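On clarity, I found the account of how folds are encoded harder to follow than it need be. What matters is that the chain and its backbone geometry are given together, residue for residue. The format is easy to grasp once an entry is in front of the reader. For illustration, here is how one protein appears when written out as sequence plus structure tokens.
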Amino acid sequence: MKSTQRIYEAIATTRRADGGVHAVPLGFRHEGDAVVLSPFRPSTTLDNVLRDRHAVLNLTDDVRIFAGCLTGRHDWPTEEAREIPGRRLVGALAHLELRLDRIEDDPVRPRLICLQVHAETHAPFRGFNRAQAAVIEACILASRLSLISEEKIRSEIAYLAIAIDKTAGPEEREAWGWVIGRIEDHYRLTAPDESK
């Protein structure tokens, strides 16, 4: 049986060159004492971490933030981090403040090996909701529309919609709508022009 490392989903906040906050969904791994980020190239997050050598991982169960960051809704409240020059999401259940230790370069997905310099819990985790997991999976699909066939995307979305129908609350339904809108917009804009 193949051994795999767990990948956790978070909202990464980094500082843009103009000093503003850049927030995006990003998977991460724990490897011993290190936290590993592997953003694809090109990536604003990658550029920001390489320049400033810091990042914050925000752990949240509000999937509207994942869907919002993916669909152009970036205005989520933040406040100063404790130990690094950066900002964290006010609504996060917990956050990790990271300092870049070293880079394992790669032309597609470099590995950023980071040290955790501060961690803080802000609110209790209330438990799993299948609809939240479905929104996260839909976000991942929506971020890879140019890499995965339309047939596969639509098949996966149809399956994930079952969890939305059965377990979603208003927040999950709102987030789901944003992601589905992005997917449909992509296929509408990339559809071949049959009038020619």
